[in-house]
Amino acid sequence: MAFESNSLFVAKKVKLEKSEFTVECNIGAGQNVSKILSVSLGSCLGNSEVLNGVINYSGVIDTKIVFLSEDGQLNTVCSTCPFSSKFESENIENGQEAIINLKILDYNIESISGESIKIVVNVEQSGSIVANKEIKTIRNGDDDICLKNDELSVIRFIGSAKENIEVTSEINVREKIKKIILSESNVIVKSVESGVNFVTISGEVSTKVVYLNDNDKFESGYVYDSFKEELEIEGVTRESLVDGSAYVKQENVTAEIVEDEKGCKILIKVPLMLMASAFVEENVSIIQDLYSIKSDIKVTTESFDMTYVCPLEKVEGKIEGSLVLDEDKPRVDKILFNGGNSVTITNSYFSDGEIVIEGIAKTTVVYLNDEDNSLYSAQIDVPFSISDKFNYQEGGVIVVDAIVHDVDVAVKKGRELFYDAKVKASVRYCYDKVSGVITEATVLEDYPQKDYAMEVVFAHAGQELWDIAKSVKVKEEQIVNQNSDIKFPLAEDTSLILFYQKV
Question: What is the CATH number of the domain that holds 459?
Answer without folding.
Answer: 3.10.350.10
